[in-house]
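Predict both folds.
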Amino acid sequence: MPDTPRSTYRVQVRPGFDLDATAELADYLSALGVTHLYTAPLLTATPGSPHGYDVVDPRAVNPELGGEAGRRRLVRALRAAGLGLVVDIVPNHAGVARPEANPAWWDVLRRGRDSAYAHWFDIDWDRGRLLLPVLADAPDALDDLKLVDGELRYHEHRFPVADGTGDGTPRQVHDRQHYELVNWRRGDAELTYRRFFAVSDLAGLRVEDAAVFDATHAEILRWVDAGDVDGIRVDHPDGLRDPAGYLARLRAAAPESWLVVEKILEYGEDLPDWPVDGTTGYDALAAVSGLFVDPDAEPDFTALDGRLTGRHTSWQDLTHGTKLEAATRLLAAELTRLAAFVPELPREQVRAALAELAACFPVYRGYPPEGARHLAAARSEAGRRRPDLTGVLDAVTARLRDPDHELAARFPQLTGAVMAKGVEDTAYYRWSRFVALNEVGGSPAHFGVPPAELHRFATARQVRWPASMTTLSTHDTKRGEDVRARLAVLSEIPGRWAERVTDWMSRAPLADPALAHLLWQTAVGAWPVERDRLHGYAEKAAREASVSTSWADPDPAFEHEMHALVDRMYDDPELHAQITAFADEITPAGWSNSLGQKLVQLTMPGVPDTYQGTELWENSLVDPDNRRPVDFAVRRKTLARLDAGWRPAVAADGAAKLLVVSRTLRLRRDRPELFAGYRPVPAHGPAGAHAVAFDRGGAVAVATRLPLRLARSGGWRDTTLSLPVHECTDLFTGRVYSGSELLLDDLLSTYPVALLAPTDSVEAAA
């Protein structure tokens, strides 16, 4: 097995699609051309967990997935098919929704500070009992508490009873425990343990403690030592107290493993100089998807957004507001804990200063040496917005600049959570100017990526992070890659879109026009999408936006109106026909974008990941929609037809995408030397701006961008591409080309993409 994968395929291993079901994919994945299976977390998670990120016992494989025996069967199946394994690990937090399922948390609840596991969790014991936000929002909620089999029970919740405290009424027993059950609404404001973002069911772990690291990583590292694991994906390193120290310890424990981190980089931000191979690919996603968005459309969409919503708000001001909301509302408990580290100043002023700095922080969190620059930028902007806090801001910032101060160690954990909750989970649902850009790792204010910018990005990756992952879809993306690709078409027809959506919104109004614009874009991007899926998306989007309704306080009247709008899309014959006609109008160009962005992602520097099912057309929306079961039988049959010589039309149920994926991955697997460099290949002629091409060291990728504008301007005409070899073969059509100049009208006559390789290398691989 190579130390670095040449490609990966992500599978959401879960109850209902367990390790044995995953093992059955080994032959298909090998035929597809991937070199490594990349799994969701495999350790024991909360019973019934659909994702595995709520690990409750790091000592064993999840029995609901097949346990250790299932893991061994999977490894055997992969090795027999010539595949490696990359596993996802979750060092930042543990699942505590079901205390009885988490032995360490159960013991902490039972024994308090005296528990052998008390140091595992980031608990502020000095503030009193450990608060657990599980009670209903009612003054007499504790009256429902019961004593059963020596445990306290609150409806379906179970809690331990400390030794010698079990006599008396349930309320009396409760009052003697190391924990206190409180109203669920108090969670965001008063909790005494660090959480994952604002999720009270996920308690932060202290993996900076060597003993905690060893205990929580022993099983994973046992697999590594046994040669069963070739790579590790680290979930959410920004949540850790000391990510650099943690990654150094992990690298020392797994020196030969491919190691990537789920580090979200803001536009223009570089990955810190960590002992890792790169990120999980959101930076690549933003660059590649933006390539197919027309930057010239930005003024039109800005004007449309203003007309539809009746206001003009900058992205900077919007995100400042949503981040400040996240800091002061969702993460109020964390803010209070940090403010306590500046006891000599008024508590509320310190809280306000910290919240303002977090809201103004330009990246998820700062790391040396760039962290000082980011803190300075945050201080400057915070001072501009809150001149009344100048003295407190100066005092707080001085402590944040002191690496030995506890506040400096903990504040970065807050800024990352504020960015994630305030931007990804709120602003992305409020800012509906052009939602194709509202993606994890993206920058909605940065409208499109010109080819020259893509080439600069890829060249830098080849030099600095050649083994970093690339991706277009994950379980965390806000919409699937093909939905984004179709939405990108709207940037080529801003006037047409403005006409359509303005008419639809006037005929079917919604009290929240920004949300309505998001829903109409989502509908045409995913159409035809099942009604129940669009209803589910609408509800999640509206509650995440927290404008007209929210998770904490749903507004039944507004949500009824919103669901009625979704129903009209299906039940109003004229409206349904218009949506269908418009989606049909933009779909062919969307297919072109899908193939183009997929080819660029699979061939650019880095290790390309294919998210489960996305080798065919796929119209997933946000989680949990993107975790739906995948029909692998259809994909097997389609791949077999392609291998038998079938060359499908672009519109043939996504088979053309599977052709692109399989042929590209096979070439990367079989001829890695053709992907050892990076050089832009310019197109010459009247349509040169519509081609993006690059030479990876023998393999040349060619993709079409802005296909509608290309068609309107007369097509490729006399546009040519200069090739580095005199004879090459297009792996998608099998056509052989001779000479150093190729007419793009000829090369791209069958598909809007081409992958060229020296003919002798193609024959050798075949």
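Second protein follows, with its predicted structure tokens after the sequence.
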Amino acid sequence: MSIKKSILIRVRLVFLLVCLFACAIVYKVVHIQFLNGDKWKSISKERRIFYKPVHATRGNILSDNESILATSLPFYRVAFDPTVAKAEVFNSGVDSLALLLSRFYGEKSEDYYRRKIKNARHSGRRYIRLHSRQINYQDKKMMSRWPIFREGKNRGGVIFEKVEKRFKPFGILAERTIGFINEDKNGAGLEYSFNGNLSGTDGEALFERIAGGSKPIYDGTEVKPQHGYDIKTTLDINLQDVAENALYKALEKTNAEYGTVILMEVKTGEIKALANLGKTKGGYIEDYNYAVGSQGRTEPGSTFKLASMMALFEHSPEVNLTDTIDTGDGRYRIKNTIMTDAKINGYGKLTVQQVFEKSSNIGVAKLMEKYFGNEQQAYVEYLNKFGLNSTLGFQMEGEARPYMKDPQDKNWYGTTLTSMSIGYELKLSPLQTLAFYNAVANNGVKIQPIIVKEIRKVDEVVQSFETRVLNEKICSDETLKKLKIMLEGVVAEGTAKNILSSDYKIAGKTGTARKVKEGRYVREYSTSFAGYFPADNPKYSCIVIIDSPRGVNVYGGDVAAPVFKELADKAYARDLAMHKPMQARVVPNKDSMPVANAGSFDDLKMIYNKLGISTQTANAEEDWVKVSAKRRSLEFKANPVLQGKVPDVVGMTLRDALFILGNQHLDVDVQGIGKSVKKQSMAPGTDINEDKKITIILG
């Protein structure tokens, strides 16, 4: 056979095989398309259509006066189904819509949006994302009036997909206490602890998978979400601000590692301020809740001497404050260790009261040896009776468990009794120590601290939290009398004389505990001051911890006590009920009437009508107004909010100001404390610049 004939046969054979393969493909296509078409369409639809959760709006976190500490602000993604609108509506409006989109987003041309929308309609695409940028509620209202969009979702095809962002109007104030929660439901603070109340219940809706994402299908089967409840805390934003500022200054001054401050109402147990600041490369931030958590659970040092003296007076009521004890030259051998006092060469002979006032380690140790040396179990049982070995059941997650030794333990040594009596070989969190001091201020009633007072659904109280009594009488009245005298003496004559006030009495105790590193005590200290004020009629109890301060003066009286004093001064100054009666008082002007400077027309109109105050309206068409006082009435004047212009928010509440400024795409920095805006950094009516940052000052 010739080579030519052989090649020809092979070519024909390959051609025949290709034809057979092509026929097989055509047959398979016809078989799938026509014979099994319904089956595969059904499977495709099942996989394309799915149910997706619709997230509920998260509840607000409020302060004690209902200022917003954390809230969720609505934003929207704009999508479009160009196949919905009728031909005449679409054709007459598409050019104007493209022009408006181009002007609004400012990145693509009018022609780009026209082609994108027309091509999608021509190809039957039922969902296109017009832009990745999210818009606010005010923009949404504006877009809803645009051509085609004004027909709505069902006849115009516009889709506004709601997205919510968590916003804290007061910035980093109480940041760790407010806390956070992430997508994995992990977090910290109130956001995490009360997530079940704040999060609400998600709804459900039908969605269709499309190229680039999914689009909702509104077929009437969707389940509406149940929005989260608000929680009202006990925090006072003014006192919180003072606590954080005073703590920050002390930490910077001493270059300390971290610090915490807790301020609590004596009778109610309501926490009014809770500040935690830890050292980072960039300064001090709220990175951990040292007041409550295990990282803040340390050996308390001399603040624990109050518990030891309480045990002493309960066990041996015959001990008087005037009884004396010789503390010697400042060095005292206990077994194989040497205990020292802060004063070189010692204090010599001291009364029991002076032992406490001067915080003599040796004096306390000798008292414990004398009265509990043969009854060490009794000493620990007193501490347990005071509740110092138990958690408080605090409302926030992560409360540390106290560590308290027992004589039956293997690690109870011959020196443990005296070490524990001065605040070593045991561990408490700052909140647990404060609850004990608060019980002394509260005439022996130990109560559970609380930080959340109410759970609300709009204005309806769903659940309220009252103070729970943990111990109706922590010790006898005679013991309390002795303890209060000693606590006042610490400030009047002892280690905290530097915070003595001529306006009100402070009672408290300093603490300076050496820290342990690699199993050994080193010359680094955890300093503290715990107490209450006014001492003669206690309103607040407070504890301050400054960990590892550096410098010459590193004792509790030098470092922690001044922070206590600054916070106490501010709390005393703003609470007139604590002040001494004055000779005369100012008589209010009965002819004066309340005037709100600015706000929503509907809200202000309703409020003044309820109060029976006469009002006049210059322009009832405006949503936002300014208020000015006439002789016997108030007049509302228009305060328009114009797109692209800086609005006038002076006189508005913080909530209204944030709403308006946020809708103008402005980045808001809130400064100061107060209920209304006193100043704004950008002049009203001016064009919004590229920076888009505005500062508002409350007053």
